[in-house]
């Protein structure tokens, strides 16, 4: 009755939102799933409402889509597939998305850092999923393909910045706990 | 200058306001202005990357670029190919892909992209292919074909994957499919790649290319089964392809050796090392129609294992699939209800609710009690929408185990007493009402639970519904007097709306219980002092009728208001009347009656999935309401009397012919209006004077034909034929031959204007259609069938009894459905559902024949080598009774 269609078009959408439910990046791959920006945003709002309280990796069915999601600090990551899609495939894509971004942002997965590196994150989106087809699900290989920047900051300055960043992160975690 | 801009840019970039979003307040126009920087030489890579990011961000937020804006931006972007910066180049590819659908002349970048795609820089090649394919149309495909073939078999896995995926995208484009087909050999070669993603993409492309060649796909699967593919994605895909073949063969009734082989393969995947594959295999086995209980067992035990996983997603997947198993093979799941019960308190609420509904499906009659206790412990903790899911599950349980109604009813009333929103309370009340309707034993307790509920109910709409129900059911219960107290309490304590409803309910008791009449009149006369107009009016109205001591008045104006006129239509006809000359009185009989809307019970086939959104219920518009509007356009239609019933449309042509025609039959007391909806699917023809010629059976007379003056390509127009029914009711069910006649004019397909004024006559054979008994009967819903049936045992009614053996049906359910379909009667007392495993069943249903003759039908069915039926029809008209009882035979 619900045999899965043998198609490579597995992913219906990938979305990153901030902790107010605002879209940071979103890609919808199926023309039949929320064709207009208005419908997409409405759905995201709805989805965020249903999911923002959970703090662990979770899964939800919403409006006929299977959605796996994950949150970190002030970011929410969502990967959506069809109603009967293999949840574990979706999860593998979600993990790839999250881990790739974590590699790009040097484990500092939060909104500020993500926006500062939005260009590379956009490239990562593009390397993970192409028009709904999973292109690559290995974080290391995706990162290798997209993170091509040469760090142009002088060594000393970079270290200071890094120290500052990690201190900030630690502070944040201690507050969050 | 450039340096200066760069400086200020760097500054603003390195110290944006902390915590804010640097992209938050972007203006489309100013960003597009900035895009002019792309034209500067030498290219400032860092700055351009930032601007490109901003553009892409805006597009991503849903900002819309006009064609001109997009084209300008696109052309500016092409300048950036001069830069050697890798990130910039990659962002340009992204930009090309985003703008390719909006901008014009995007093929301008073909040569740049082809150069990158064939160049040496691996970082460029893969994304360049994907960008190129987004701007390529089938006509240009030939030019890049050679490169694509090379790239598919490229040693670099990213390049190969990109080429394979792009080919797949291309092949769905119109006209490109044939070109892509020629790349099958290359895809075949890529299938042998070591890279797991290349394998997956190659398999996907190959399967897509050969999807219409069953044999080739079969061969492909057979070959790959032996190869032990490394990629879990590819194995999942292979399982899907394989199960599709198995399912198709099963549907066709063929069973080949390869099917067995595929099944073995799917089964072996249950022992794969990747969870993804294991689950895919288990899912496939569960969903294959040919799976037997023995084959199911290993899959189910895998799911059982997953239930205990620490990952919510895995548990979810397992329970969801289990839920499906529960529908088809409850016994298979019942074996480990323990595992499921462990999930009832799962932190993921979706998992918990799925577990409950699964348990309720598999539960046996004996376990219901225990399960309900379990649910009671946590029901307070879950949110309203999940409670609704639980309530729905209970409703199905009630239908399944009618004997457990007291436990379930107690549980529901406990839920009713707790806090909760309107939706939640409504679903509980709905469930209780359904139980009362379906199960006579539960009626008394259900009603008293509801009485208790309205004692303290904050929702006016619910209180009104329950009061109405009390008025309907209360008078026929064992102790009607006990409900009166509850009803009258409302009159004292509630708001005007509820008081009015309570007054109506009181009147029902007065009309149906002669021994309570005295008390009811006393109570009603007190209501005449009410401060609200409506309450006073109702009290006075009912008192007057009750005091008249005229049973027929009571019956017509208090007890039986089943046959309702459609309110929307009443409103419309009243409006029309007011606009008219106003010199004749308004005739209520002109307003069509509508079938009562079926009870909410229809939705009980609840999807096990929790789609947490609440679908707004579209207001039910009946066919009659839709049609009357159009019919009223026909001159003189009023003379036919009120519309009795409209049948659903019946196709008289195949769906893909030159002209498609369907017929809707509108039944009036003595006439029938045939509405032929015609569509002309030929763009080079204009049809005029379209009408339908009928081959009439004996007795029917054509009163009027309304042709359709003009039938333009693609438009739906109607032509009508008005027939008078034969005087003899028994010959009214008959078959008609039909031919479409029209004048054809050739016309210009683009403008639709006829080439010349002259046309020629033509005709087109339509399929025969029937006017059946069902077309002449409108469903009614009788709440107390037994009462109505007994009341029909008088001289005014005719009774006919016949015994038939139904050879065409094999089950009781089928027989019931056939009877209802043939006669279009409304089933009463939920007798349209046959309990499983029984050999006898009684169907009770009712309707009104055109002209107003009521029909009550009782069909006693016995299953023994086919179905035998004793049919008893009671009707107010002899002819009607005959035609109804003969319609089945």
UniProtKB/TrEMBL annotation, chain A:
Domain AP complex mu/sigma subunit: residue ranges: 10-150
Q: Which domain of life is it from?
A: Eukaryota
Show the Pfam families listed in the entry.
Answer: Clat_adaptor_s (PF01217)
* Gene3D superfamilies reported in the protein's UniProt record: 3.30.450.60
Q: Which GO terms describe its cellular component?
A: COPI vesicle coat; Golgi membrane
Q: Which family does it belong to?
A: Belongs to the adaptor complexes small subunit family.
Summarize the protein's role.
The coatomer is a cytosolic protein complex that binds to dilysine motifs and reversibly associates with Golgi non-clathrin-coated vesicles, which further mediate biosynthetic protein transport from the ER, via the Golgi up to the trans Golgi network. Coatomer complex is required for budding from Golgi membranes, and is essential for the retrograde Golgi-to-ER transport of dilysine-tagged proteins. The zeta subunit may be involved in regulating the coat assembly and, hence, the rate of biosynthetic protein transport due to its association-dissociation properties with the coatomer complex.
- Identification of the protein by name: Coatomer subunit zeta
Automatic annotation (TrEMBL), chain B:
| Coatomer subunit gamma C-terminal domain sequence ranges | 774-888
Instruction: Look up the record and report any one GO term of the cellular component aspect.
Output: COPI vesicle coat
Occurrences of domain Coatomer gamma subunit appendage Ig-like subdomain (ranges): 629-772
Ranges where the Clathrin/coatomer adaptor adaptin-like N-terminal domain occurs:
28-548
Q: Which UniProt keywords apply?
A: Cytoplasm, Cytoplasmic vesicle, Endoplasmic reticulum, ER-Golgi transport, Golgi apparatus, Membrane, Protein transport, Repeat, Transport
Q: Where in the cell is it found?
A: Cytoplasm; Golgi apparatus membrane; Cytoplasmic vesicle, COPI-coated vesicle membrane; Endoplasmic reticulum
Membrane topology summary: Peripheral membrane protein
- Pfam families, from UniProt? Adaptin_N, Coatomer_g_Cpla, COP-gamma_platf
Give an example GO biological process.
organelle transport along microtubule
Q: Tell me, what is one Gene Ontology molecular-function annotation carried by this entry?
A: structural molecule activity
- Its domain of life reads Eukaryota
Similarity remark? Belongs to the COPG family.
Function of the protein: The coatomer is a cytosolic protein complex that binds to dilysine motifs and reversibly associates with Golgi non-clathrin-coated vesicles, which further mediate biosynthetic protein transport from the ER, via the Golgi up to the trans Golgi network. Coatomer complex is required for budding from Golgi membranes, and is essential for the retrograde Golgi-to-ER transport of dilysine-tagged proteins.
Quaternary structure and interacting proteins, as annotated: Oligomeric complex that consists of at least the alpha, beta, beta', gamma, delta, epsilon and zeta subunits.
What is the protein named?
A: Coatomer subunit gamma
Native source species: Polypedilum vanderplanki
